[in-house]
Amino acid sequence: MGTSNPNMLLNYVPVYVMLPLGVVNVNNVFEDPEGLKKQLLQLREAGVDGVMVDVWWGIIELKGPKQYDWGGYRNLFKLVQECGLKLQAIMSFHQCGGNVGDVVNIPIPKWVLEIGDLDPDIFYTNRSGNRNIEYLTIGVDNLPLFHGRTAIQIYSDYMKSFRENMSDFIESGLVIDIEVGLGPAGELRFPSYPQSQGWEFPGIGEFQCYDKYLKAEFKAAAAKAGHAEWELPDDAGSYNDVPESTEFFKSNGTYLTEKGKFFLTWYSNKLLIHGDQILEEATKAFQGCNVTIAIKVSGIHWWYKSESHAAELTAGYYNLQDRDGYRPIARMLTRHRAILNFTCLEMRDSEQSSDAKSAPQELVQQVLSGGWREKIEVAGENALPRYDAAAYNQMILNARPNGVNKNGPPKLSMYGITYLRLSDELLQKSNLDIFKKFVLKMHADQDYVEDPHQYNHVITPLKPSGPKIRLDEILEATKPIPPFRWDSETDMKVDG
């Protein structure tokens, strides 16, 4: 059983659980409050600190521009509050459906899709011209194509409406964290590996910048650099290729040429600028609220051990042996005081098939270390549902890579972990028993604590974003620095 030791409490890492994707259904109805209440009380009894929920744009602004309906979510939030849990709310500006684990289908609002019928270039597009309707292309971020609004203005208005309509839940301390969706699956990336277009693991994926808006931006950037003749890549293969079968990603391939480097820098910088702009809007929308702001970065661990890191490059993470693709994201987040939420925390290299050249452990170490070096908080989640001790121990190790410190805060510690996800399977007795141990070990063997101040999470009123950081300063963070050292295993095993 847990205890309450003030020093050990400084090692406490809160645990949240993701709610089912369709807990509020596509018709904006909170379907099964009684069933969910039972489950939430079981989570509360297990010591869980809170839950995370997708707040779908496609549900809330379904009826037309600025016609918001928060009713279903208000009912859900009330229930979470009654059950004594805290809440992480995701501003989900993407479609649900078409990705790993998507069991329901929630498209983006119909009125936006109708604009896309007339102008399909508002969507991400691959080289063959396939459109991806999961999320609007970055190319329309600042174009007033949506009944006079830009994509950024749409996201901004949505967040302001959330604040106005959920202010009682924010002020009461129920909503503690706003995760701002920045792309497909809510992640800051390009939709480079869509199952809906036939991608299968471990395909390298495809670049997604062939809509007319991004094409024009690239042509302008190339001309400005004195290379008007440069075009977007046409030698990067297709979704299910391996790096060596393409001219772009093979050893000594296009990615190492002047033209290749120019393209990859442009492509990955688009993500940095996109995230930066939307986070500035988020801090304006929630300024003065006692919440933290977070974003999610995807754990693309396949081909990490290949020279070209092809699957990361197509997603927009320009990460190589001699170039850190993640620390610039962390540096961009510093001015917004935002948390970097990373995935695949449960995975170990030894569990992966060797032909994918996958290295989830090294990837997690690189990304978390980059966040800590930039002095931001990092959080994370598992990529796939797991109920076994090995997965839980790996997550605990990543949460405190050098173990607990009996005399104060640990040397390194994650800000929180969100478990994916709430299901009947998780609540089966044998699975729930080990999950309770996981929560207790994440809490450093301490009892559940309601007040985050006790474990050093001081949530203060959100301040506006700091001064803009110049892109060249952000890109100084591409210089690789060796990651922090991780212990070989956690000192807080669930089966220890």
Automatic annotation (TrEMBL):
It catalyses: Hydrolysis of (1->4)-alpha-D-glucosidic linkages in polysaccharides so as to remove successive maltose units from the non-reducing ends of the chains. GO terms for molecular function: beta-amylase activity. Keywords: Carbohydrate metabolism, Glycosidase, Hydrolase, Polysaccharide degradation. Pfam families: Glyco_hydro_14. Its EC number is 3.2.1.2. Gene3D superfamilies: Glycosidases. InterPro entries: GH, Glyco_hydro_14, Glyco_hydro_14_CS, Glyco_hydro_14B_pln. PROSITE patterns: BETA_AMYLASE_1. Belongs to the glycosyl hydrolase 14 family. This is Beta-amylase. It comes from Stylosanthes scabra.
